[in-house]
Amino acid sequence: MDTVIKVGISTCLLGERVRYDGGHKRDPYLTDILGRFFTFVPVCPEVECGMPIPREAMRLEGDPASPRLMTQRTRVDKTEQMTSFCDDKIRLLAREELCGFIFKKDSPSSGLHRVKVYNSGMPSKNGRGLFAAAVVKAFPLLPVEEEGRLNDPDLRENFIESVFTYSRWKTFLKSRPTFGGLVEFHSNHKLLIMAHSPSIYREMGSLVATGKGIEQPELFRRYEELLMSAMAHQATVPKNTNVLSHIMGYFKKELSAMEKAELLEIIRQYHEKLVPLIVPITLLKHYCLKYDQSYLLRQYYLSPHPSELALRNHA
Questions:
Q1: Arithmetic mean of pLDDT, 44-68
Q2: Residue 315 pLDDT more than 80?
Q3: CA 128 and chain centroid, separation
Q4: What is the largest CA-CA distance in the chain?
Q5: How confident is the model over 217-236, as pLDDT tens digits?
Q6: Which residues contact 65 (CB under 8 A, 6 or more apart)?
Q7: Mean pLDDT along residues 3-10
Q8: CA 168, 173, 176, 177 torsion: positive or negative?
């Protein structure tokens, strides 16, 4: 691919033996599949902050909103060591132009969701690893996910779709962007945004419509915020069904009665979860080419990521 898409990742997920027990957690999907499309930027907070391999196991303790990182056996507080590293690492990562980050679940440094935090010896799954928390705070629009949750096909598609969208936006910003360029970018992403958040889609339309009266840096900042906020919403079956029906409206004068009936039936089957999204999408792409619908052919909704990833092939 022409554009290098950088994605941060917990080092152990790539097969590096950096875990506390000297092992790794290599994830074949990440290394063998996503590794073909992303350039991974590995981070192991424990090792990079100066801890050895192997090392004593650690856990989060205290207030889930501001937990301490403690060694389990010797009871050494590693919080300051880790937070100092996080401050330095965040500054370095800001130069990387990351388009996403994949964290190791359950890690007291890198866990993103439901990390155990112990209070008076009792665990509750309501914490976040110290490094993961620092990344989310520093880069609030960055698509982030845990490797375990990527086993869910819907969450996987949403994350990867967001990463590719963020990459296209960053490429746009590097291209001496103009207001006209923003209008074109938005036009090509309209249906994709609609599939993720119809309400934010309407808000973005209003922003672009009045964009000439806004200073360009502020306009682009507000657009980026809305774009990534929209992508953070999952594209559900009902929302996709709405977009598919919307696309069908572009062919109301061209489709024969038989073609219209076939398309309606395929959309119904998708809505009932009898066929995957790729089925109506493939048929719509065929009609776009057959009837020369150039506007629709430019829509990233029809091809938001490489087809080799087969993200729309699950029912």
A1: 97
A2: no
A3: 18
A4: 75
A5: 999 999 999 999 999 999 99
A6: none
A7: 95
A8: positive
Strands 68-71 and 58-61 come out as antiparallel
The mean pLDDT value of the chain amounts to 97
Provide the residue count of the chain.
315
Residue 124, C-beta contacts closer than 8 angstroms, at least 6 positions apart = 64, 116, 117
Backbone angles phi, psi at 72, to 5 degrees: -75, -35
* Residue 71 bridge partners (DSSP): 58
**Six-digit token pair at 231?**
């992508």
- Residue position matching structure tokens 């506390």: 20
Peptide bond between residue 45 and the one before it cis (omega within 30 degrees of 0): no
By DSSP bridging, strand 39-43 and strand 6-10 are parallel
Which tokens is 141 given? 């629009």
Buried b vs exposed e over 160-184: b needs ≥16 C-beta within 10 Å? Answer: bbbbbbbbbbbbbeeeebeeeebee
Do the beta carbons of residue 5 and residue 34 sit within 8 Å? Answer: no
- What is the pLDDT, as a whole number, of residue 120? 85
AA letter at 124 = S
Closest by CA position to 82, among listed 42, 110, 57, 62? 110
Q: How many CB atoms lie within 10 A of CB 95?
A: 7
For residue 288, the cross-strand partners are none
- Structural contact between residues 64 and 108, judged by C-beta atoms closer than 8 angstroms: no
Cβ burial 271-306 (10 Å sphere, 16+ → b, else e): beeeebbbbbbebbbebbeeeebeebeebbbbebbe
Q: Which two tokens stand for residue 20?
A: 């506390």
Structure letter (DSSP) for residue 77 = B
Give the alpha-carbon dihedral of 172, 173, 176, 182, to 10 degrees. 60
284: nearest Cα among 295, 169, 118: 295
pLDDT at 294: 95
For residue 298, how many C-alpha atoms fall within 13 Å in the half-sphere facing its CB?
A: 9
C-alpha to C-alpha distance for 215 and 256, rounded to whole angstroms: 48
